Every structure is written in structure tokens, then in C-alpha cells.
Amino acid sequence: MERYDRRMKRDDLSWMIGGVQGSGVDTSANVFARAAASGGLFVFGKREYYSNIKGEHSYFQVRVSKTQIRSHVDTVDMLATFEEETIFRHALEVRKEGAIVYDPDQESKKLAEVPTIEHDAKEILSEELAKNGLSADIRGILELARRRGVHIYPIPYNDLLKAVGSKFGETSLSTLQRMLNILAVAASYALLGYDQKLVEDAVKRQFKSKPKVGEMNAVGVASAYEFVNQKYKGSLGIRLEPVPAKDVRLFVRGNSTVAMAKELAGCRLQTYYPITPASDESEYLEAHSEMELDGRSADDPQVAEVQAMQGKGSIAVVQSEDEIAAVTMAIGGGIAGVRSATSTSGPGFSLMAEGLGYAGMNEVPVVVTLYSRGGPSTGLPTRHEQGDLRFALHAGHGEFPRLILASGDLEESFYDTIRAFNYSEVYQTPVIHLVDKALANSDATMPMFDVNRVKIDRGLFLKTITDAVNGEFKRFQPTENGISPRPPIGTKGGVYWHTGDEHDSLGHISEDPTNRDMMMEKRMGKLEVADKEIPMEDRLNFFGPEDADITVVSWGSTKGAILDAMEWLKEDGIKVNFLQLRLIHPFPTARVTEILSKAKKVVGIEMNFSAQLIGIVRERTCLPIEQLVVKYNGRPMSCEEVYDALRLISEGKAPKRVVLKHGA
Fold first, then answer.
1. Quick count: other Cβ atoms within 10 Å of Cβ 163?
2. Is the pLDDT of residue 225 over 90?
């Protein structure tokens, strides 16, 4: 696909670090990002890693800017390395006038000696080096980058480590080499002329539980700054400076955002079986299972909990033996009257399908947070894809209601998590909250969450039963809107039954056709109620001018890349608007039809092969959408890719199906 020069459009810095998994890549990226955020800069981080514990290559890109950013870019301005594979894999991604920081002790390392680079990738790189008359080693790849206009900065890490070690009486080089990643961060910031104290403070915060380690790393930062300032000061034409922050911001990761929202929403039971990338959320909850409770008013459902727990609260996080147990355990919590959830990814969700049907049949509120990743089968366990939308919509045999809620960024993930619990209890049905891998493993700065926006609605939840007959309560009694009062099982004064079979109003098994009609209509009718009651502003977003040349339709984590690309396109005089679908079931048919009927040209953008959302839009609206932009190689869309695709489409140069392929 044709590429356009956007360098002059960017007012930001793209920094990347890579290394062997388990060698501190995440730690170094967190330090870099925290130092930037502390300096008032906006941050967006993207984490990529292989599906093994240690040994394979992982990398982390951090994009920083003085203005709001919502996505990553393909172009690398500065590559920080402390081992050879990162140089081989990413050196040619660095732009002209960008920089590579590396260890000169590794210059003799050969491409053939790196076992973790795939054979095809080695062949492509070897051919490129040979074509330019260069050897297939670190010297060769760095020389090729230099010829392309990249600045090369050798940093003698081992000399710096020995100097740090001498100050602390540490002579073991293998111990000191644990600081290599922090030296790479410090050298990067020194080249950029960034405030040294902000970097040292970020290091100390990163290692706050290990003060001595933090102090050693802070001295390492000072050593790297001293070396760079003596040898390279002012040689790089890129400078990064702190700016006064106008507001208080959070720096958070996607999984943590959802976890925090669950606690605030009143979730008190979380079940899971370990699976990437969902496990991080449950592990965060395990680490923060005790919380301060705040009963803000007499109407707040947490007031009673505050009083009972003396201002303290907790969430039970249970690692089950498998995903079948996880979903059924969460359903049991819902039956008992506790706000309950489970988190999983594609293969685990496959095992939960029968449990979802049980919750649907018994009108049990339960929230399933589904972190979409690459499939099918084990697929790409640690990579990104929006391939589970159709599955979430239809999982389970037979027909039963469920709501499908898809978040587009970290802020939406927070507030949508709370909405998911409300919807689940108000409509007494499973809610599947789609949060994909790209969101789960993204870090970003954002405004402080506003807890005053959080309203908890438990629906027709009964704490006492007053209308039992002969000690029995008609839990499934049909009502005008299909929603019956719901007491927790075991509530004094009323007995009712739960079964996987069709049942009558008491829960007794019944195969009577008249009863079957009544119960099916009761359950399925709740979707019509939700369709009427849920505000449109919670179901979709619409960005941009109504008279745009192009209308983009999408969902999930593509949101940030689309919004950032729209700003660049606006500078080119290309007007684009964006319809983001969030509550996908029940589908907002009338409003979507109204918007798309006015569009001049509609483009569907999705991270899957078959454009699943666009298929649903066609089914619901009968409107043809022929222009697609899709990506399914496991790497999320960048704003540069979206910009390229939409510009080609606006010029009439694009095929009907544009496939994006960038990603290492």
C-alpha cells in the first residue's frame, strides 16, 4: 500500500525498547512512561510479547506528546537496545534522523546466531543486507541504518555498570547487568535532554518496595546521563521537554482499569482460570482485594456494606480448575445475590458457552469480561484480534438474551465495566463485556476517573419476601416487561428452584408448550426493553462533521487509531466522521440506519478477517457497505496505517478490501 510522509504532521516522540522476555523490558518501559507522565506529557504505550514465559523477544513502544494521543505509530524515533535481537528486528523501523542506542560489545554478533528470530525473517533481512554489500551481523545492520540517516549511539554499558557497582560494593557483573534496561532508558532520556530528576524519581517509584535496588538504579541513571552529556550532548536533533500539566492524570494499564471499575461497581466475586491476556486483571484484583469503602449518600448501595464492614471491603478472587467451573461459580454468586464476574479469553469463553445458557435460562445476572485475542484454537495467545464478536453474540445453544458491550479505549473500559453490572442486574441476564488484547496491554495517561458519575442500579433486587404463597415464591412470574423481582436464593419466606430445564414460574421443570411460549417470550422480550431504555449515548459514539466525505464504522480498540488519523486527514482537507458501536446487542438499528443513510461513502474498519461488525450492520440495516479496511496479523492498527488507508480511499486508489500488514 502506498505510504505518505507524515513526519511533519507529528508533534510527538515514539520510543521503543526490546529484549528477551523476563529481562526487564516491561520495567524499563514503565520507567520511561512514568518519567514522561510526571513531566506533564501525554503517554500511550503498546506492549508486544510472545506466548512463552522467557527466552523469546518482546518489545514495548511508548509514544509521548504535549497533546492528547490515543494510539501507537509504526515509525520509531528512538530505539533503545541492550541485546542483539532488538537491533536485528527493529533497526530498520527507525526513521531518518532518528536514533539507535546500543551496546558496542555486541557489534560482532551474527544474525545466524540468534535462534529466536524466525527463519523467514532472517532470510528477508539477510537478503537486504547482502543487497547493500553488508555483513549479516550487528555492524552490518547498524551501517544500513546509518546510511538511511539514523544516528547511532554506542553506550558502554558494562563500564557504566562497573562504576555503579564500585559505589555500592557490588562486583558481580551478572548482578549488575540486571540494570542494563534502566541504563538504556537513561541514555535515551539524556540524548533527548530530558530532566534527569524526573527519570531518577520514576526509577525510585518503580522499585519502591526495594529501596536499595532503586537507589542503585538511580545512580545508574546519573552515570548514563554523565556519559551521554560528555560525549553526545546536543548531537541529536530531537528534544523532549516537560510541560506544565493542566490537570491531574492517571497513568494506567487496560487490565487494571477494568479491575478497579469492578471493585467500584460492587463486584465482590471474581472467578478465573489463567489465560492470556485476561489473567492480569484477576491478578491485579488479587493484589488489591481489600479496599476502602465510601458510602457517599443514603441512596448508595454501598452504605450498608460500609456499615457492616466498618469502612473496609474485599473481593473474593477465585482461581478455578477450569473455565467451566469459573463461569458456573460466578453464576452461583449471582444466584446468591452477589455482584459476580469472570474474565477470560477466546478458548476459555468457548468452554463457558453452556454456563452462559444456564444463566440465560435462569435469568441470572453475571458479567463475563472477554479479552479478545488471535484465534482460532490456541491461535495467537498473546496477540491481538477482534475475532470474537460473532461468537459472543451467538455462544450457547438455543436462544436466550444477553447484552454485548464493547469498549473502545481505557476510559470507556472503566465506565462500561460499571454499566455491565447495572445492565446485568436490571435485565437479569448475562452481559459480555468485550475488551480486546490491544486495550488490555495498553498503557495511557487519562483524566482522573469521576466516581460521581458512577451510579449503581441493582434492578428489582429483593432483600425480603412479602408475597410468598405457602412458603413458595414465584421467581419467574411473567410481568409486563419480562423482568421479575429477584431475591437471593435462601431469602427467608420464599422457596423457588433453579434448573437447566425449561420451567414454570416457581422454577419447576415443565415441557408444557403454553408455558414454553410464555417463558421464551418473557426472557427474550427483555432485549426489547433494554433497546428502549438504554440511552443512545451509552450505545454508540459519533465523531466528526456530519457532512464528511467518508464515514468510518468500527468498534473496540481501533477507536484511538481512527481518531488520531482523522486529525491528520483534517489537516489534508479530507473530512471524515466516525460511528463507533459500543452496545452491539441489542443493536441500535434505527439510529445506525439514520446515520449511514446520510453518509457519502462508508468504510468499515476492523481487526478481523471477515469484518464481523460490518456483517451485523448489513443484516440489521440492509445497507450495503463495500469498502473495508481489515487487519488480522495479530498486531493492532496504528494511526499511520489508518491514515494511509483512508487517504487512498479518498483518492479512489484503494481496492474494495484493504488489508493492513504492519507489525513485527
1. 16
2. yes
